[in-house]
């Protein structure tokens, strides 16, 4: 039976081309914290762009480092870590690493007497930051990966995750964590928002618009488009609840100023009325939140032109 693995920290590896930024409405530009989970149970939403390995095209790089503690000592050796979303079929795997005691040196750089003794067991560890990985998984590739990912639409893997430590030689599960809540988003390309949201995802919006992994896994965009559209429109309407009413008297927009849509005001429901222009701009903006699907001039995506967003 596997022992308990205590998760002490999960962090982004920075810099990395797969990292993307999430920002909340009405707040200053986000602090570039790389930590997405800490031992005290605090978690931060995080976003990645899907970046494929140059050496293994079927492999997606996920730049994370993981730190954990074992409740009982384990032998030194070669291990790897997996993270699995409890409610879905999504799994991340680390490249193998050596589980070993750090060398202890004195102020002169010489090995101490205690360090000269062989240490055979260890209770805490952290996945390496690049140098100890095999050549096929250099720093730029990412320290975790996901194989066989087949998606044509952004997705999220949220809720409880379990993390396990495995022996590399025989895949034996040495330890497994209790479920910890994480909120992770994956996008196909760069963000699509213009200023004042350049290069960021709006947290309150992507929580409404980005579908779960199970909805889009293994399907082309034209197979899931109608389902995603219905999902987005339904969630946007639910956002207003009973307080949001269609203006049948003056018919004037409440969330549009000229050609600028007031996204933050809409997400905060600053007005209890809207009209068709408000709703059209909101749906348009919602699809912008899915990002782009290409680079440079090839920015084919879900929607790429139209109303400014504020």
Describe the structure.
The protein is α+β, with helices and mostly antiparallel strands and 310 residues long. 17% of the residues lie in helices and 34% in strands. It is built from six helices and 21 strands. The strands form three sheets. It has a 16-stranded mixed sheet that branches. Strands 18-19-21 form a three-stranded mixed sheet, covered by helices on one side. A hairpin with a 5-residue loop joins strand 13 and strand 14 (173-176). The chain is elongated.
For the biggest sheet, the summary is: 16 strands, mixed
Percent helix range: 10-25%
**How many individual helices?**
6
Mean pLDDT: 78
Structural class by sheet pairing and helices: alpha+beta
What is the β-strand count?
Answer: 21
**How much beta, percentage-wise?**
25-35%
Shape: elongated
Which runs of at least 5 residues are low in confidence (pLDDT < 50)? Answer: 102-106, 111-119, 130-141
Q: Determine Rg (CA atoms, Å).
A: 23 Å
Elements, N to C (H/E): EEEEEEEEEEHEEEEEEHHHEEEHEHE
Alpha-carbon distance between the two ends: 54 Å
Summarize the structure.
Helices cover 17% and strands 34% of the residues.
């Amino acid at each position: 039976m596997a022992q308990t693995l205590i998760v002490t920290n999960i962090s982004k590896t920075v810099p990395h081309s797969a990292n993307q930024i999430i920002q909340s409405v009405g707040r200053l530009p986000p602090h570039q914290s790389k930590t997405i989970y800490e031992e005290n149970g605090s978690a931060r939403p995080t976003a990645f762009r899907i970046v494929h390995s140059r050496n293994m095209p079927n492999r997606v790089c996920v730049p994370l480092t993981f730190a954990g503690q074992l409740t009982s000592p384990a032998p030194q050796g070669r291990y790897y870590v997996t993270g699995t979303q409890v409610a879905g079929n999504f799994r991340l795997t680390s490249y193998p690493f050596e589980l070993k005691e750090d060398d202890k040196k004195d102020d002169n750089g010489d090995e101490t007497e205690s360090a000269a003794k062989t240490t055979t067991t260890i209770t805490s560890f952290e996945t390496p930051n690049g140098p100890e990985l095999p050549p096929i998984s250099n720093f730029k590739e990412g320290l975790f990966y996901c194989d066989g990912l087949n998606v044509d639409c952004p997705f999220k893997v949220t809720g409880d995750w379990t993390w396990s430590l495995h022996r590399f030689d025989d895949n034996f599960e040495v330890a497994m964590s209790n479920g910890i809540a994480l909120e992770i988003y994956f996008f196909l390309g760069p963000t699509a928002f213009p200023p004042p949201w350049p290069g960021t995802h709006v947290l309150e919006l992507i929580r409404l618009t980005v579908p779960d992994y199970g909805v889009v896994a293994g399907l082309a965009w034209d197979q899931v488009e109608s389902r995603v559209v219905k999902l987005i429109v339904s969630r946007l309407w639910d956002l207003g609840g009973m307080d949001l009413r269609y203006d049948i008297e003056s018919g004037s927009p409440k969330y549009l100023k000229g050609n600028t849509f007031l996204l933050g005001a809409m997400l905060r429901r600053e007005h209890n009325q809207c009209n068709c222009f408000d709703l059209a701009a909101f749906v348009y903006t919602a699809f912008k939140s899915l990002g782009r699907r290409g680079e440079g001039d090839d920015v084919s995506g879900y929607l790429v032109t139209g109303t400014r967003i504020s």
